[in-house]
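Problem 12. The chain below contains 105 residues. Write out its predicted structure in token notation.
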Amino acid sequence: TALASIMSMVIQIASPYIVFSAVIHPALPFVLIGTLGIFGSVPVLFLPETEGVTLPDTVEEAKTYGVNDNIFWIPLMGNSGRYKKTKEKVDLTDLSSTQNQAYIP
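Solution.
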């Protein structure tokens, strides 16, 4: 809550200057507020999506929550792109030349 309090004080100090910027150009206050709104919404893109999942109840569950989620996934994109693709690990100890795709006799 301290960060929100500090930011509200900064906005209170800056608001007369934003209003006064209309002397430079009549549309400048709207451009400044719109730009601040867009920059303020960017950190939200890094939050994990909570739709359709159970939220963690313990600290241990919270540490692993959202680890496999893709960044920038939204529900409109469908469930196929929600999670990161896992890479298959191949056991190289029993790989023969007939199983190797790079080796074609």
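Discussion. The two ends are 68 Å apart (CA to CA). Students who got a different answer should revisit the alignment rule from Section 12.3.
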